[in-house]
Amino acid sequence: MLAAMTVLTPVSPLVAQTTTGTDVPTTDTTTTQVADTEVTRRSSAPDAMTVTARLDRARIQLQPSTGATVHAFSRKALETIPGGDNAGLNSVLLQAPGVAQDSYGQIHVRGDHNEVQFRLDGVQLPEGLNVFGQTLMTRFADNLSLSTGALPVQYGFLQAAVVDITTKNGATNKGGNVSIYGGARDYFFPSAQYGGQHGRWDYFFTADYVHDRVGIENTTPSFNAPHDLSNQYHFLGHLRYTVDENTRISLIAGVSNAEYQLPNIGGQPMFGDDYSSLLPQAPGSGNLNERQKEITDFGILSLQKEIGAFSLQTSVFSRYSSLGYSPDPNMGDLAYMGISQHAERSVMSTGTQSDVTWRVRPDHTIRFGFQVFAERNITKADATVFNDADQQVSIHTGNGRTGDIYGLYVQDEWRPLHNVTVNYGLRFDGVGEYTNEHQLSPRINVVWRAWKGASLHAGYSRYFTPPPFEVVGGSDLQQFASTSAATDVSRSDTVKAERDHYFDAGIEQIILPGWRVSFDAYYKLAHNLIDEGQFGAPIILSGFNYRRGQVNGYEFSTSYDHGPLSLYGNFAWSRAIGKDITSAQFNFDSDDLKYISQHWIHLDHDQRWTASAGGSYTFFYRSGHPTRISATMVYGSGLRQDSDVPNGGVIPRYATFNMSLVQSFRDLFHSRFLRTTQLRLDVTNLFDHPYMLRSGTGVGVGAPQYGLRRTILTGISQSF
């Protein structure tokens, strides 16, 4: 098994190739390349580097993606995308096929809403409350992969896609870097990172501060958004101790603190005809002062161990996530929405995850493991509303709930023939939170290397997705009866777990050295399909179910890498529909509920056509002063909006182009302490094309949002 890991395939500097997840994971290619490079450059500690590389390979083998579709981003690919390490993680993922962008920094993969799990070095992070916060920084990743399709049984809970980030560490990222990045719209983005190794210890940390006026998408097509200041602080750190050649302990910790102003929409009518006299101090809708604060803290402690034919990694982790919304202090929210509320939510998640690989024979590898999350959700709000006598009254609501989700699995990776790999297994999942449910889920994937350079795959997965824990309890509805915040519908059934049958098949072919093409098709049949929407002024997403759901589509991807030139292109078609809303009904209009109960509708995040493309060329790439120019494109046919039926319309299509110019200088200052100096110029939305992400209408859609207009940013970074 380890011998196969030394066979390296070319990785595109802009975007790594799509692969069908055979027994050699794409992410390991990047890791191995990094390790080999560092051994050559720093031969003073070859033994430590060899142990690090071997343990990294063993960790990746704990969670193969046999049969899944994997889109890998090497470290070079992350640096090449416009913005480089300064780009948000979601901006990077938009370069993969089948990924559609939405407001608040959300992405939709293969027609699902936010069902994307994030893993750090193979350990899954529990869900948090962050909507438009960016807890995980691109510069913390040594490489990352996005896995979709019929996933093997080790992946549970959130299964639209798995983003697995291999973090930087002090063994392969020695030294430091400081940078300053900024430009238009008060954008100011200083950052620092440093890594090193001392004996058996190695460490790496990175921190940054973001100040800008583009924290949330503009609610108007204007060049600058009104009332859109944001301040964000991030820290991520990695500490490891190598006990011996077979044992390693690691700690990953992160902190994110972000404050946002919510953009305004001018010219809006008040909630009631007489509210102007009842609230004479209320500002115009274009002058509201609404704010939101988000905090996320997490820690992961892991033990990795090799024992003969067994490999294991066991981890304990904890994540705290909170969100606080502050309404306009002059009762502007009450004037325009009939309710003004200070709202707070928090989720504390603690759990453990263990994964074990047993290499029984060369043709059989058994894997098994489990995950358990214990969660505590607290919700409270102090609201001001009008009663039937047009008097202001205060209503306090709050509740706390403790629950758990769990899953365990076993699978066998079997090679009945030298060119055929079968991965089959069972997974058992359960949830005990707002709902108590469980399911036994079989899964199977087959990969056939039919001829030279070709890989065909097909798979079936049974999925069980617990509902998001941070949902609104129906008991609060009665307190708002006969007030300006009363709902049209009083029913509030519990959000239930989603259960899916998922089918996937595809082919990947190497046309020429460095040129790959792939095609993939998928179909999901869902019961109690989970969707999410924003209801009210706070940017808080709440879950609900469609009794039936269908998602299907296909993807085409190609990439080429040769010398200084790299090119890639992705094209995807998708359809996502649902019928009959069966939970959290109070959030919806009664006429919409009646129509949806009898008719299939498009999901609000259904985008029929999605495409991305990019290229880069490096001048003087063999010299110490390379010049790299790169460009990317993102196309969307538009998410949904209301017409004469819910979600019956389509937002206008758009295409945006971004470019980047990076000049590097090695040893510019002729100092033994200063290494590479880098200057960069990035332009987002090069042709300043105004485009809409959301119109403000649709099932579970809040305010309108527009994409970022042309933004020019520059930066300088210095390695040492």
From TrEMBL:
InterPro entries: Beta-barrel_TonB (IPR000531), Beta-barrel_TonB_sf (IPR036942), TonB-dep_rcpt-like (IPR039426). It is found in: Cell outer membrane. It comes from the Bacteria. Residues 1-16 form the signal peptide. It comes from Komagataeibacter intermedius NRIC 0521. Pfam families: TonB_dep_Rec_b-barrel. It is a multi-pass membrane protein. PROSITE patterns: TONB_DEPENDENT_REC_3. Keywords: Cell outer membrane, Membrane, Receptor, Signal, TonB box, Transmembrane, Transmembrane beta strand, Transport. This is TonB-dependent outer membrane receptor. The keyword Cell membrane does not apply. The lineage of its organism: Bacteria, Pseudomonadati, Pseudomonadota, Alphaproteobacteria, Acetobacterales. Residues 218-686 form the TonB-dependent receptor-like beta-barrel domain. Its main location: membrane.
